[in-house]
Design goal:
By secondary structure, this protein is of the alpha/beta class. It has helices at 32-47, 93-113, 130-136, 166-170, 172-181, 187-192, 205-217, 221-237, 240-262, 269-275; strands spanning 7-13, 16-21, 53-58, 119-123, 126-128, 140-144, 148-150, 185-186, 198-200. The chain has one domain (7-274): 2-enoyl-CoA Hydratase, Chain A, domain 1. The chain has a six-stranded mixed sheet, with helices on both faces. Strands 5-7-8 form a three-stranded mixed sheet. Bound molecules: zinc ion (ZN). Zinc ion binds at residues 101, 162, 251, 255.
Length: 279
Amino acid sequence: MPAFESVLYETPAPHIARIVMNRPEARNAQNYQLTYDLNAAFDHAAQDDEVKVIILAGSDPHFSAGHDLRGNGGKTHADYPVVGTWGGFALKGAEGFMANEEEIYLQMCRRWRNIPKPVIAQVQGKCIAGGLMLAWVCDLIVASEDAQFQDPVVAWAVPGVEYFAHPWEIGPRKAKELLFTGDWFSAAEMHRLGMVNQVVPREELAGSTLALAEKIAQKPSFGLKLAKEAVNQSVDAQGQWSAMQAVFSLHQLAHSHNLQVFGVPMDPSYQSVAQRPKE
Ligand code: ZN
């Protein structure tokens, strides 16, 4: 069984691999370590012919708080195996910043989305911003009744997270509401909108997700792979990937603007207004 610093790799039933983000003290926030551990764990599951279905879970109490804004504990890209074909991560200005986000967010998500086996997200508690990206790259989402979803980054003058699947996941009008308001969307609401496949009581989440995985694992692996690719190719033919790449440029424009005006990649003024004591 492979071992990782911030991810647990489990085989809870025959033909099922369960990858558990295991930074509960950081609410499973995604830093470099978690990113590259997740990538290695997904690769292991993808390349193990015994594994037919993969579950992506997060250690309690929350699925994911999104990207770890506290940094990477002094580690840099030099400490990890770069997955893409690009570089320049340490370069100044937008060049290095964009290369970094392309590697660890956009292209890594794209890579995971294309794993040739069904992947099920098992979501409980909070799923915020970058956490949405992790759920969205999965093929199915099972959520507990208490799960809540939010992308608040417009408040920091950034037009949504890097893997911009919002309109595809919940439709353009609700995507705008999610982005403009920064409000929490409940599991029931996301189920109604078609983003979540099943909503179950918290105590039944792991069991229900595993039961779904076992049901799917009864099918031939090649049939599952082709069915997954059939749907993904259909979505790509509708322009999803082209749109995501275009929006990634807008995302980088936002970071560049904020760096020029505020000296940081996210506009801090909304937060300081919100934190100002009421008069
Ligand atoms: Zn970004």
